[in-house]
Amino acid sequence: MNSANQIKPAVLYHLTLVTALVVAPHFQRLDLRITLAFLAVLFLRWMTLYFAQWKTGRLLLFAVTIISAVLIFTVYPLLMGLEAKIALLSLMLGLKLMECRRRRDLMVVLLLGYFTLITHFLFDQEILLVGYVFIMVIALTGLMIEASRSTHTTGFRLNSLRYAASLVVQSLPIMLVLFFLFPRSSGPLWNLGVDNSTGQTGLSDNITPGSISNLIRSRAVAFRVDFDQDAPPPRQRYWRGPVLWHTDGNRWTRTTALQAKQITYQSLSPPVSYQVTLEPSPNNWLYALDLPEILPPEATLLPDFQITAKDIRNRRHRYSMTSRLEYHTGPLSRRERQLGLQVPDNITPRMRDLVSQWRSESTSDRELVNHALRFFRTELFYYTLTPPLMGENPSDQFLFESRRGFCEHYATSFTSLMRVAGIPSRVVTGYQGGELNPLGNYLIVRQSDAHAWSEVWLEESGWTRVDPTAAVAPERIEQSFDFDLEENNILGIPVIFSTADSSLLKQFAKQFRLGIDAANASWHRWVLGYSKEQQQKLLQHLGLGALSALKLALAMILATAVLIPLLLFLLRLGSQIKPDPVVRDYQRFCKQLDRKGINRFPYEGPLDFARRVVRKRPDLKQPVNAITQHYIKLRYGKADGPQLRKAFHQLVRQFRA
User: How many alpha carbons fall within 13 Å on the CB side of residue 8?
Assistant: First the structure.
């Protein structure tokens, strides 16, 4: 093989390591067998480099390729879905590395590495991943530079990485021009035609006992909220989501039977304005504080005050809302009364007897509601993430036997009891609370804040929120779960809530977590959230708001065409070697003589030039000899120092031809 086409062993060692790091973020979503196969291929490649007698012959490559193909079609029979394609790409990258012998093979591996880095953004666009990809781009570029060197070295030169980093930094101005001027679509480019719903969590449009308690164990962010004023207290942070009307005694679902109508209600409190950044979700509803008043243009308010929107599935969405925290919803329609009084067939006699007792002791519906809340508060009910399994009648078993459950147990059983009592009621799901991040002055609402509560219709207040969970565990409204305590996972043990972090390590971990989230929030708002509307606002500020998409594309091309030569010129100026001050002074001395007709020849040394000058101009003998002697000492001799340089500089300045 031609030596100029050979790959240095050090480059192959580092290429194997970088290839593993390039694919590493995909390990969490790939099948474990695919991950192990990929690592095995890299390990085999590393062994063939470490043991020179081992060769990756055609037979070995063919066998590994066949095994990889069989594994791919075993795990993903039809190669359907994004994960299957990523698995195929990862194994192809590893197999190409196995046969990497020439520079052409190396370039193919590096280009596949760049392409693999792009695929990470199909699943995640967090700022930490962006930083990781930025480092990997520098590493791949450094390997490309190192492999392109004509001189052979045994090791990997760090200046290749420095040069690669400088190339990436030099490309940033062009990247910014393309980012701000590239015509935007209604959603991110990486989301077009790609199904990102796999693995995403969130509330569904129905609940069964245990559904929300399974979701509650996730620390994933559901949405973030920026308030135009101070955030409301935790007891008023009820984020309304799907409203559930129908039940078969076990499962609660939404309804489509309500007809659209003009929704009016009486506001009893000042408006609260805020902006919500909703994380990607397969659902089409928005969350708002009770009750929403001013909606974003793309949203629709349903008769039960749930908000839906078009074209928001599986992408991050930011919207503005205004809500009223105190309200009167007005009269009840006939259809709402029918839906709110439906009872399942599994209502037991002891449930009816309990409600009859409350009714006999009450003079109004509100007083009966208070009796029910007192029942939950005074009886031995426990709020737990791990309730015992329920049978065919979960409400009856929960109320009279286990008395251990989560918010969906309390909300659904309370709503069933109210319907038995003749009070229209429904279950509302959403989120409650949220963590205030002081580093960004915004609210973080996580999946662990998922909640369910009940609404009852009362003559004097309309639809009224009643949270039976707060009667059993009022700390649920003010505090979050302590995920670090294993007791929360023991069957039937009451939930332990977080208290003030006393340990220095916990405080540091919390501040670090909030700092990372604040950075992500800013990244989402200003970079990932740079939408078509925001681009139009920016162009209007620049006086370019009238540009169409075509003109904007032409402006982007023109700006890039002007910027690239300008950058090349600036880089060339910066790369020019500045002459030594001693050489610069001597050149100044020579220019004075040149103006008097005594030109120094390119081949002429300082002594020969001085002798010729003295022959032509004997009157300049003393200064010419002094300048020449100082220059030779500084340029060719060992004598050097600030005093000698200063004296030489003064001689040149005083010289007059």
Answer: 18
Q: Is 321 exposed, middle or buried (0-12, 13-18, 19+ CB in 10 A)?
A: buried
Q: What is the pLDDT of residues 301-351, one digit of tens each?
A: 998 999 999 888 888 888 999 999 999 998 888 999 999 999 988 899 999
**Can you say whether the dihedral through the CA atoms of 38, 40, 41, 42 is positive or negative?**
positive
Which of the pair, 235 or 530, is modelled with greater confidence?
Answer: 235
Taking residue 110's Cβ as centre, other Cβ atoms within 10 Å add up to 20
Alpha carbon 359 to chain centroid, angstroms: 53
Identify the CA nearest to 76 among candidates 63, 64, 62, 90: 90
Average pLDDT across the chain, whole number:
83
Find the catalytic residue in 467, 524, 585, 630.
467
H helix runs in 438-491, sequence order = 468-472, 475-478
DSSP string, 92-142: HHHHHHHT--BHHHHHHHHHHHHHHHHHGGGT---HHHHHHHHHHHHHHHH
Q: Determine whether 328 is an active site residue.
A: no
- Which pLDDT score is estimated for 151? 56
- By residue count, the chain amounts to 657
- Give 618's DSSP letter: G
Integer-rounded Cα radius of gyration of the chain: 37
Question: Is 451 known to be catalytic?
Answer: yes
Q: How many CB atoms lie within 10 A of CB 123?
A: 19
- Separation between Cα atoms, residue 205 and residue 242, nearest integer Å: 6
- With both helix axes pointing from N to C terminus, report the angle between 58-75 and 82-98 in degrees, rounded to the nearest 10: 170
Which residue of the set 14, 26, 120, 451 is catalytic? 451
CA dihedral 53, 58, 61, 65 (to 10 degrees): -170
pLDDT tens profile 68-100: 888 888 888 877 788 889 999 999 999 888 888
Whole-angstrom distance, CA of residue 287 vs CA of residue 240: 5
Please provide the DSSP assignment of 201-237 as one string. Answer: ----SEE-TTHHHHHTT---EEEEEEESSPPPPGGG-
Residue 413 has a pLDDT of 93
Tell me the pLDDT tens digit for each residue of 413-472.
Answer: 999 999 999 999 999 999 998 989 988 889 999 988 889 999 999 999 999 999 998 888
If you ran DSSP here, which 8-state letter would residue 579 be given?
Answer: P
In the chain, where the domains are located: 3-170, 206-255+262-489, 532-575, 581-654
What is the CATH code for 206-255+262-489? 3.10.620.30
From the list 14, 317, 396, 407, the catalytic residue is 407
- Give the pLDDT score at 598: 87
Whole-prediction pTM value? 0.70
Three-class SS state of 497: strand
Give yes or no: 26 in active site. Answer: no
Q: Residue 48 burial by CB count (10 A; 0-12/13-18/19+): exposed, middle or buried?
A: middle
Phi/psi of residue 299, nearest 5 degrees: -100, 155
Longest distance between any two alpha carbons in the chain, whole Å: 132
Q: Is 499 exposed, middle or buried (0-12, 13-18, 19+ CB in 10 A)?
A: exposed
For residue 633, pLDDT over 50 is answered with: yes
